[in-house]
Amino acid sequence: MEIELADVSFEANVWDVKRAFGAILHGEQFYDASDPKARPINFKVTLNAGQGVSNNGSGSIILPNRKIGDKLLRWVYEDRNPILINGRKARLFRTKNRPGRGLKETLEKTPYLEPELEEKREDKLRRLDMGLHVDKLQFGVYYRRPEDPPTASRIFSNEYEISHRDKGAGLLWFEYDHKLIRIQLGDRMTEEIGQNVAIAFSNIRKVAIGFDFGNPFVCFELLTPPMLERERFNRMLTGNDWNDQRKFRQRLDSLNEAHAVVAPYAHHMRIILHTEDDIRKFAELCVVADLKRPIWANVEAFNKGFYSPKRLHEFRNWLRQFDWPVAFQLEALIRSGLMHTEDLLVHFRRHVEKLCKEYPLDAADILRHFSETVRTKNPADTLMDCYLRVAPVNGKPSKGMRKTKASRDDDSQIGDPDMGKFKCYHVTFTPTRMVLEGPYVSQSNRVIRQFVGFEDHFLRVDFRDEDRLQYRWAREVDGSTLLNERVGGILKQGFELGGRRYEFLAYSSSALREHAVWFMNPFDHPTRGYVTAQSIRDSLGDFSEILNKPSKYAARLAQAFTATDPSVSITKNQWEEMPDMGTEPHLFTDGVGTISPQLANMIWEALCTAKPDLRRIQRIPCAYQIRFLGYKGMVAIDERLEGIKMRPRQSMNKFDVPDKDVAPIEIARWFEKPGTSYLNRALVMILEDRGVDKDVFMELQERAVKDIVTAVDSVEQSVTLLRTHSLGFSFGIPWILRGLRAVGMGMDAEGLPANLKGTFLHSLVAYAQNHVLRDMKHNARIPIPDSYLLVGVADEGPAYELEGVENVFSLKDGQIFACIQNEEDEIPTFLHGSVVISRSPVVHPGDVQRVFAVGEPPADKVCFFRNLRNVVVLPSTGSNRSLASKLGGGDLDGDLYSIIKYSPLLPTEHAEPAAYEPVGTRVIDRPSTVEDICDFIVEYINSDVLGLLSDRHLIIADQSRDGTNDPHCLTLAELCSQAVDYPKNGIPVDIHDSPRLLIRAKPDWKMAEDNDPRDTDYYASTRALGELFRSITISKPIAPTESFPDPLGPQVGQKQARVQPLTDPISVALQPHIERQLHYSVNDDRNVAEMRGLFARYERELRYICVTHALSDAPEIRLQEEEVAIGTILANCTQRRWRTDRMHRMRMHSSEIVRDVKSRLYHPTDVLNPDQGELLYGLSQAWLAWDFGMRNSTVFGARSFSLIALGVVLDALFKLGGLPN
Fold first, then answer.
1. Cis before residue 1065, ω within 30 degrees of 0?
2. How far apart are CA 470 and CA 1025, in angstroms?
């Protein structure tokens, strides 16, 4: 309803009027704050412009409906309540005008925004509404001459310049809403095409202003290259703003051919403005835009030509003399901007060549650590200082360095190698750069395991934006041209690196989600001959039936590249395919088969042999996710199968493989324990819309927060926290804590004589608490009581009956079976009664269904699943549609299902499952080629919008009064389903055709993912997610200096105060047990000092982990020792997937260095049955290492090094019988 306003104060603005009416409409007369579903009334105010005043005294207020409008008029005139605006009484009149339908719906659905926020934003936009003329734009690098003192100012080398002083205007302005500075090159009046350079606020490390021979300059030191764009100035406009502002800018990889030469290396910027007044205005605008005020500095500029074609050609020719691993590290130094060509070709040439001659097998690793040392150096250090810290000195290796002039025995693998892992080189292509990392340990796959010794011919290649996050296009940006030319060009034409030519090979399904693929360099193999990418693809199987479907063909190839662990091989007579149950397209047994108990035991034994830590797990898994020939999916134990037998199903067979007498079973995942079921944002939103009260979520979170905060009260609570959230496993921290409990140690609140308070372990629990609280606040990741996350398998009962078995107990439609047994549980728990089942991601209200858990099967019937533990069994009978397919279109090839038995979370309102009808598969009229796969990858990267769609769905659900039942949300749910299937069917979703947000501002719970949140961009959400978000406050742990790598290297024995060795609480508690086994507990100082080399080796790799796996390339951004030990990254990140991927890589890398140190301290000839002498020797070595770490506890790396040694000490004591198990 629209109400006319009159006699408004001439000085009042829209915000004054909004405040006046807000005070009334949000008072107790109109708004019941005690009603949890009530929202403050939203309304819109408009004032008519006046001459020389803010308004002419008139305007209007539009309310969501007539009922509120009538009530307001009665309140004013019948109840005689005046409305004062800036002290003046305003008059209200009913009008015949009817608000537009869109505006009416917006006011009814969307939340009210406080006027202060909008007023602040409008003021900033007004003050930033100006442009500054740019005369020159320069790209280059900052450097110091070798003879310059460390305190000298850096010089700017101008490697590429665009001048607009004579030929037209360049213009700089601030875009506050987009958080960037835009520099437009070109003149709208005289030119058709212009170019833009966009600098994101978050990309600016430092800004300096000053004068260079009278020229006013601004120098930007950037973390990554800026965004480069092309724009058609005078494009045709239709008057429809939504369409006119779409995709009118194109992303570029360079501004022109000359810039393309230097763009991969030089991305810092220097601009020359028109007048002295311009740089002062620029400084003021920075402050208005919430940036730091630029500093005044004297920055000289020269054109050194570090990256001229001639100099780059000389560098490439020089690289050819080195082995490829060395060439890779030299390329990495140049491409990371840590050194320029003159540094390597002039100042370091002799040193590098000498290093490679004298230490040919070590040179690449030394250069890898040199790169990390330069990245984290002190400002006062020179490049040569950094080199001398890692390189051999006077022909002698540095402390802890291997002597490998003739051999590398010291670096040889100690212990049985884990064939599921290998050292992988990583390459990331951004629009302008090639970023090189590694090698570091990564998960292997079927293909790479075939070529042992040739692993460095395979590269993991990622395609990402300049900030290393996945490509995300603003609405006005068209990224397809960049992707087709940059990504498509690399995929189809390959690239050269270190003198080798690499060509596209394939990808795995999980890697594609990370926009990553495999490349390889062809090589001669002693038994396979000349190996190329095409020969590998041809050897994988027969894909003739799907060759006209590029996405499906690529997905089938991807099976062979799934990260897996090898297990056992079986012969042709030990497996047989069996038919599926159900009807297409929703089979009851889609993706699941069976396996015999004997074969399951053999697989587990193979995994335990490769990963000895698994032997601590007493319970053998009942189900495995596998890859076998052309099959993929799950296999569950069927106790009716005898001997060595596997029965995959037809739905698991994705392609034919040439007949093989023997074939390996590869393990993608195993399921030895139940997972914890958590709430998440989408599940909270849907359950709230289906009748679950907001207070239920708040109570659950309060209970969870209490458990987290009190985790330091006892060792058992700490262990529960770590195990529940899978933290500290790389270093075995949960197991170490339990070991210390066995020697009588506890937390402060336990009141035991031996206390862990103040130890490194105690501080690690604090980091774990922070990690869990952060996940809870940012993602509503709240553990649910009496609930589990279980892999799904099918009930084989109906198959038994088809085989003639009688008296079979089978699940009926709407029933499930789940039996839970944790490692410490003596008896299993059979779930019985009503439960909720769902599968992530949940988007549609019907993705959450109520079913009945049948409990323990009757003893007098034959039952397939009677002894299955820690899986959920779904029925194989009922309607034509499987239960899995009703849950977000799931299946049984490895999907995890959340089973919630906690009764307050069971929804009171029913919702039908979404249809999830298949949209078909993209088909071409000829057999697919590798170029078709490359085109699909480019299209996938451009259309990978599932995360954006899910985000938009949640935001609209928060903004709308209808929640997830809003028509926009239901449309987005359907698009999400299509986006999930996109990698297989090749049918993309255009994000720009999806429903828009209802209002500009986002709910405050989205603020958590923003590195630089501004209150003008968010509103306080009244939904459960908003309440949950605001109720948690997180304080980041304060890290001591030893948590970070010392740029000078480990100062072993130099910083420590004179403290009696082995007097810390843990040492004191262990000494009696050590004494009983070794007959001494105090170590000789010389023996302790011998651990220095092992520690130096460990510290170097830990330092590399802290730099390489950080979320940012900024030199000041490094992981803390505590983060690596606990397995978390505390830094904020706008893309959760990037943070999760970095954590996964970091955990795998750290697991490997822990494994390396353990094996060097103690490696028995028989892991299962070590003799006493070996155990005693291992104990003595580990006790020395523990002693060394504690003596140097203020040195970076020493505390986590001690933890590794402590794990070996406790393990040896247990096996020697010195501790209760």
1. no
2. 26
Say which residues have a Cβ less than 8 Å from residue 1196's Cβ, sequence separation at least 6: 1042, 1043, 1044, 1045, 1046, 1050, 1099, 1102, 1103, 1121
Rounded Cα–Cα distance for residues 606 and 589 (Å)? 27
CA 1055 to mean position of chain CA atoms: 37
Buried b (16+ CB within 10 A) or exposed e, 1105-1136: bbbbbbbbbebeebbbbbbbbbbbbbeebebe
For the record, the structure tokens of 439 come out as 């090698």
Give the Cα separation of 523 and 532 in Å (integer): 7
| Rounded CA separation 204/282 (Å) | 15
> Are 853 and 818 a contacting pair, CB within 8 Å?
yes
Comparing C-alpha atoms, which of 408, 425, 405, 400 is closest to residue 332? 425
Q: What is the maximum alpha-carbon separation in the chain?
A: 101
Kind of pairing between the strands at 495-497 and 500-506: antiparallel
Report cis status (omega within 30 of 0) of the bond before 439: yes
- Distance set, CA 68 to CA 75, 81, 289, 297, 809 (Å): 10, 16, 39, 60, 61
Give the H or E element holding residue 351.
Answer: helix 349-358
Q: Is the pLDDT of residue 762 over 60?
A: yes
Using a 10 angstrom Cβ sphere, with 0-12 exposed, 13-18 middle and 19 or more buried, the burial of residue 234 is exposed
Residue 579, SS3?
Answer: coil
pLDDT averaged over the chain?
Answer: 89
560-565: average pLDDT: 90
Tell me the CB-side half-sphere exposure of residue 851, using CA atoms within 13 A. 33
**Is the omega angle on the peptide bond into residue 841 within 30 degrees of 0, that is, cis?**
yes
In whole angstroms, what is the distance from residue 925 CA to residue 547 CA? 10
- Nearest C-alpha neighbor of 127 from the set 14, 285, 282: 285
Given a contact cutoff of 8 angstroms between Cβ atoms, the answer to whether 718 and 735 are in contact is no
**Which residues neighbour 539 within 8 Å (Cβ) at sequence distance 6 or greater?**
none
Q: What is residue 180's predicted lDDT score, i.e. its pLDDT? A: 95
pLDDT in tens, 767-797: 999 999 999 999 999 999 999 999 999 999 9
Phi/psi of residue 678, each to 5°? -120, 150
Name the pairing type of β-strands 295-296 and 204-212. parallel
| More confident position, 891 or 617 | 891
Query: Strands 745-746, 44-47: parallel, antiparallel or unpaired by DSSP?
Result: unpaired
Query: Which pLDDT score is estimated for 403?
Result: 45
> Which pair of tokens denotes residue 380?
């006062």
Question: Hey, how many other C-beta atoms are within 10 angstroms of the C-beta on 744?
Answer: 12
CA gap 419, 748 in Å, rounded: 43
Distance CA 432, CA 826 (A): 59
* Angle (nearest 5°) at CA 730 between 725 and 736: 85
pLDDT of 32 strictly over 80: yes
Give CA angle at 301 (296, 302), nearest 5°.
Answer: 175
At position 1161, the amino acid (one-letter code) is: L
Q: Report pLDDT for 591.
A: 94
- Total length of the chain: 1221
CB atoms within 10 A of CB 886: 22
- pLDDT confidence bin for 399, thresholds 50/70/90: very low
Q: Are 308 and 316 in contact (CB under 8 A)?
A: no
Q: How far apart are CA 700 and CA 712, in angstroms?
A: 20
Tens-digit pLDDT profile for residues 300-311 = 999 999 999 999
Whose structure tokens read 């819309």?
689
pTM higher than the cut 0.70: yes
Handedness of CA 1066, 1068, 1071, 1072 (dihedral sign): negative
Closest CA to 564 of 418, 429, 691: 418
1132 φ, ψ (degrees, to nearest 5): -70, 155
Contact 65, 10 (CB under 8 A): no
